[in-house]
RNA sequence: GGCGAGUUGGCGGAGUGGUUACGCAGCGGAUUGCAAAUCCGUGUACAGGGGUUCGAUUCCCCUACUCGCCUCCA
């Protein structure tokens, strides 16, 4: 069996991964707070841990992996946004959850096995808070319940910082009801116009951290294999989760492996609204950024081109590289022709690709290995090789068999290619062949060149082979522009 | 102030104690009506300073710079 090695934040080292139960590998990842469109930074952990999920499924079997990613649907940002929009909280969270799903689907991110909503687990949170109070790890004060950091000697171990350092250097919220400035909220009172649940401490709502402790325990147990999230969650969120879960369930180990993905940068700077380099996944997909339209596969590739533990800088070069790799994959998949493309089924993935992924999720390395295979000559691109490429692409979450350009490349490699699948492009292709034939007689290529330029501008690759012109739709191709060209040429 | 990551050729980005990936761009050639695509060939690098070593870009230390986290944040 493939040995997976992962960098464990707990130990700061790369360790061999062995699940508690190979028949039930369990992973928890912190999901989105649903109050707005997912920004690009939200997408990074979704993609990173999707690759890990796919790898775990490959190694342990699809039925033996349980992946839980929560939806935080109670939080002050949500309350504020709903109030600002003048809408009900439920309407806001339902809509934004739908957006999140649509955007992650576009990136080829598989749905987790469970996607618990915080508001469905308030009873479990209250029970856990009661247990913490009973064990002397938490205390109620003025309608709040606070976790007592002093009760957990290992506090700070995960993020590698001491309580003294934090008090000295960081701004810590001082509140009169706190016994210790580092104590954090498990439960807080709700005003009449805020969402709330009845509890032993009055009507209120949970603090941010308790939901992950309660939901991971409910769905994965007191001990599970992997907990993931963005590096910025390491402190305080994950540190607090560890404190809550380990104190509530001293018999369990909570998460054995902690994985953190590094942050996203845009042109070398942190993405932020004030810098004007902030954008959502949807902005990118719909071309509302300086990068023009970027497909879901290209965004995914842009992520995979960086190692998850390195900051990823999104810039024009990165987007271009992602586009080039996507085109490379599409052409490679078409090298055996249309019939083969339709028939291809995944086989066993390329060992070198699996090995790279198993080595701490080395996606840039895996892509490098894969690209070696993509570049094979047509003669070497046998059915078996293609099967292995397809299987490897599946592991990376990049099935491009259905892409328009893949089909167009396949036709290019057909022994007897028929007309172009797209009628407007078929017309343009025939017209271009006609114009070129006439131009070769007259020596005036102006018309042929104008059509060619129009096609390129519409996102269509023009390849002129001895057999004649071939038109290939690229990811960015604009069907409306092509239709206009076809109509003009007919007239 | 505390913690962490990083600094590789024009750009992006791997990697290794000795023989210097790869991609893009560039340059030369083949091909082309011209291009594109394709094919062949080709150059430049390891932030600075010490140390360990027969030998360091690769290990250790220091310095500089960059970035992130420490507050809601993926």
Automatic annotation (TrEMBL):
Motif ('KMSKS' region): 270-274
Cofactor requirement: Zn(2+)
Location(s) in or outside the cell: Cytoplasm
This protein's UniProt keywords: Aminoacyl-tRNA synthetase, ATP-binding, Cytoplasm, Ligase, Metal-binding, Nucleotide-binding, Protein biosynthesis, Zinc
Residues at which ATP binds: 273
Cellular component, GO annotation: cytosol
EC number: 6.1.1.16
Superkingdom field: Bacteria
UniProt motif 'HIGH' region: location: 32-42
One GO-annotated biological process of the protein: cysteinyl-tRNA aminoacylation
SUPFAM superfamilies linked to this entry: Anticodon-binding domain of a subclass of class I aminoacyl-tRNA synthetases, Nucleotidylyl transferase
Molecular function per GO: ATP binding; cysteine-tRNA ligase activity; zinc ion binding
Note accompanying the cofactor annotation: Binds 1 zinc ion per subunit.
Assembly and oligomerization: Monomer.
Protein name, entry field: Cysteine--tRNA ligase
The species this protein was found in: Rhodosalinus sediminis
């Amino acid at each position: 069996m493939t040995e997976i090695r992962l960098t464990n934040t707990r130990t700061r080292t790369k360790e061999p991964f062995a699940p508690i139960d190979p028949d039930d590998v369990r992973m928890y990842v912190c999901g989105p707070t649903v109050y707005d469109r997912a920004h690009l930074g939200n997408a990074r952990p979704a993609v990173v841990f999707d690759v890990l999920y796919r790898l775990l499924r490959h190694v342990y079997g699809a039925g033996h992996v349980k992946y839980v990613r929560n939806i935080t649907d109670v939080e002050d940002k949500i309350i504020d946004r709903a109030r600002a929009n003048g809408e009900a909280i439920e309407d806001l969270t339902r809509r934004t959850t739908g957006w999140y799903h649509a955007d992650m689907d576009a990136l080829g991110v598989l749905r987790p096995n469970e996607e618990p909503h915080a508001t469905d687990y308030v009873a479990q949170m209250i029970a856990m808070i009661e247990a913490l109070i009973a064990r002397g790890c938490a205390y109620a004060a003025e309608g709040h319940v606070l976790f007592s950091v002093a009760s957990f000697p290992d506090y700070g171990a995960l993020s590698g910082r001491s309580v003294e350092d934090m008090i000295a250097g960081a701004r810590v919220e001082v509140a009169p009801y706190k016994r210790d400035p580092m104590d954090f909220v498990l439960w807080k009172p709700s005003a009449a116009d805020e969402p709330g649940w009845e509890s032993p401490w009055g009507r209120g709502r949970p603090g941010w951290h308790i939901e992950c402790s309660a939901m991971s325990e409910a769905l994965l147990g007191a001990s599970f294999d992997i907990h993931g999230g963005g590096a910025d969650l390491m402190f305080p969120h994950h540190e607090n989760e560890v404190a809550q879960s380990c104190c509530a369930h001293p018999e369990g180990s909570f998460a054995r492996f902690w994985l953190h993905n590094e942050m996203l940068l845009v042109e070398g700077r942190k993405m932020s609204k004030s810098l004007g380099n902030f954008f959502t996944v949807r902005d990118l997909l719909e071309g509302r950024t300086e990068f023009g339209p970027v497909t879901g596969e290209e965004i995914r590739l842009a992520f995979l081109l960086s190692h998850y533990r390195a900051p990823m800088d999104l810039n024009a070069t990165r987007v271009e590289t992602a586009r080039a790799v996507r085109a490379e994959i599409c052409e490679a998949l078409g090298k055996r022709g249309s019939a083969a493309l339709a028939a291809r089924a995944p086989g066993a993935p390329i060992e070198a690709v699996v090995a790279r992924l198993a080595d701490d999720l080395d996606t840039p390395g895996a892509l490098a290995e894969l690209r070696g295979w993509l570049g094979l000559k047509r003669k070497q691109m046998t059915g078996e090789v293609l099967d292995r490429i397809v299987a490897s692409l599946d592991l990376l979450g990049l099935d491009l068999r259905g892409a328009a350009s893949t089909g167009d490349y396949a036709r290019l490699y057909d022994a007897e290619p028929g007309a172009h699948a797209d009628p407007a492009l078929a017309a343009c292709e025939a017209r271009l062949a006609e114009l070129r034939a006439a131009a070769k007689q007259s020596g005036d290529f102006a018309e042929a060149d104008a059509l060619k330029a129009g096609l390129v501008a519409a996102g269509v690759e023009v390849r002129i082979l001895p057999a004649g012109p071939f038109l290939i739709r690229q990811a960015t191709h604009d069907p409306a522009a092509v239709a206009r060209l076809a109509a003009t040429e007919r007239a």
